[in-house]
Amino acid sequence: MLPLSPAAEAQSQTNNLSIYAGGLVNGFRDASWAARSLTNASPTHSGKHSIRVNALPEWQAICFRHAGFDSSPYDRVSFWVHGGPDGGQRVQVQGLVGTDNPPENVYYRIVLPTNVWQHVTVPLDALGVENKSNFTGIWFQLMPNSPSNVFYLDDIELYAKAAPAAQAAGQTPDRLTAYVAGSLAVIIVLLGCLVFLFWRRNAGELRPTTSMTVNSPGEISRDPASAEEWRQRAPTAEAMAGKQGQMLREKIMPELTEFAKQSLVQGLYTQRNSLLETQHKAQLALAELESRLANLQLPLQERIRAYEKRIAELEKEVETQGEEMRELTRATLMLVRKKLEDERENERTRGRFN
After folding, report:
1. Which of 6, 7, 172, 183 is deepest in the core (most CB within 10 A)?
2. Rounded distance, CA 309 to CA 313, Å?
3. What is residue 13's three-state secondary structure?
4. pLDDT tens-digit map of 83-97
5. Element of type H or E holding 200
6. Strand partners for 63
7. Distances in Å between the alpha carbon of 205 and those of 25, 45, 196, 197, 208?
8. d(CA 24, CA 36)
9. What confidence score (pLDDT) does residue 303 get?
10. Rg of the chain on CA atoms, in Å
11. In this predicted model, what pLDDT tens digit does every residue of 24-53 receive, in sequence order?
């Protein structure tokens, strides 16, 4: 439900943590309290097996636990669901921390599709398990008043956070370039001011002090003694200026270098936070759209038309909004386009099997 751009997705997949892929992997164990089969032969999303759940509508769940580990490298849980020939099951997804049950008010709810596999991704922060040092698992509960007790799961995994953030959001680092250029401009201006000040100071010290006598209009005579004094003072003044320049380089240049480093780091940090916040808001917007479509239980063709309509609306909004909102709209547009591709792939897959 919250896909990345293809480039960022490919980059992050190498660090994804699989929970179920034809069987439980990576130390996850079955802790369910509903009837289930982890080796169901049909239907499957990929491979030979999927999970078949036959839960009573009394909050029975299929649950996968793990020894506590750090969830900070991950930002979403991804899975595929299938509602069987009836569909419409209402399933509640919750994350686990430590040995406690999850809070009652922290969950993500979905309505399952009829006779088709649907890809779902849920942000870990929506489950209250993002950046936890003792993340211990996830469960899927069948809610009361569901029309059927049987549903299927496959290919469950934790998605790694994409890096770098600028590429994950699918945007060029324009702000980063501005920060770097700004820092360099400040350094250049400071150096220019210092050079100008020392030039004026040295020019004042080196200015001849010879006495001049005006004998007649247009005629100026110089005192030979004063000229000789100037010739004797010039080498000393030049040596002093060189020494002061050396002191400037030794004392001020390290401070300027540190200032440039701090400005660059601050710019990178601000840029990363801004991009992450934009991506998160776009993901929430797509999640809200998909939740509405799921609650309406629309056929696949209707969902595809709904995504196409939303893409057209977002493309118009990009042309009329301010820069900050335009970035958010572009990120949302990218995610909706990716979701539309997934739905069309589902349609082609279903067509091949029908």
Report:
1. 183
2. 6
3. helix
4. 999 999 999 999 999
5. helix 174-206
6. 139
7. 79, 85, 14, 13, 8
8. 13
9. 74
10. 34
11. 999 999 999 999 999 999 999 999 999 999
85/253: higher pLDDT: 85
Please determine, looking at this structure, whether the domain spanning 1-163 carries the CATH number 2.60.120.430: yes
Helix axes 174-206, 224-296, angle to 10 degrees: 170
The count of C-alpha atoms lying within 13 angstroms of the C-alpha of 336, restricted to the half-sphere facing its C-beta, is 28
pLDDT, tens digit, 9 for 90 and up, residues 228-251: 665 666 666 666 666 666 666 666
Q: Which amino acid would we find at residue 243?
A: K
Say which DSSP state 116 is in: S
> Rounded to whole angstroms, how far apart are CA atoms 33 and 138?
13
Helix axes 224-296, 300-320, angle to 10 degrees: 150
Task: Tell me if 123 sits within 8 A of 2, measured CB to CB.
Answer: yes
Q: Where are the domains of the chain?
A: 1-163, 174-268
Place of tokens 């299927």: 152
pLDDT-derived band of residue 276, with 50, 70 and 90 as boundaries? Answer: low
Q: Say what the pLDDT of residue 182 is.
A: 72
DSSP one-letter string for 246-267 = HHHHHHHHHHHHHHHHHHHHHH
Check: CB of residue 41 under 8 Å from CB of residue 49. yes
Q: What is the pLDDT of residue 329?
A: 76
